[in-house]
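Write out the 3D structure for:
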Amino acid sequence: MVYWYEMAKLTRDDVLKLATLAKLDLTVEEIELYAAEISKILEYVEQLQSVDVSGLLPTTQVTGLTDVMRTDTVESYGYQPSELLKNVPEKEDNQIKVRRVL
């Protein structure tokens, strides 16, 4: 999809509104700096939007992997749960008991 519109330069008020939404306190110098920088970024995005991509397929992934899932297998490390629980300070129903975390 190609968008055909022109983006306006960001004004001081636009930057102040963005700063308010982001809860940022900006100095006068920062406001002028960000107005210029964000305007340049928007100009670049405008260039990207004018590129004809009608014949291209969307890229969903770039690694070439088709299935990154593995089968779930049980591995024995030579210990029984009861042996591991011998050293814990508190246990309840064969589980380590910890303080509640909210």
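The mean pLDDT is 85.
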